[in-house]
Amino acid sequence: MDIPEDIEPTVATIVDVEILKEKNPFYAKAENGDHLIVTPTRAILYSSKTKKIIDVVPVQLEPVAGEGSAE
Fold this sequence. Notes:
Elements: E1 10-13, H1 17-23, E2 35-38, E3 42-47, E4 52-58
Antiparallel strand pairs: 1-2, 2-3, 3-4
């Protein structure tokens, strides 16, 4: 899966997967050390151990308060 060059994703390393699993089934197959890659349209769970994508879900990022409002 390629991410367009004009998109700068946010990348986080999972350090406590058990807490994440309790809150969201998206992390069910994740392990500590896996990576969460977030773009404006999707969240990608990636295992650097197996070098495979574990799961992908669509996302809709909330605008930051005060942005995009011309009121």
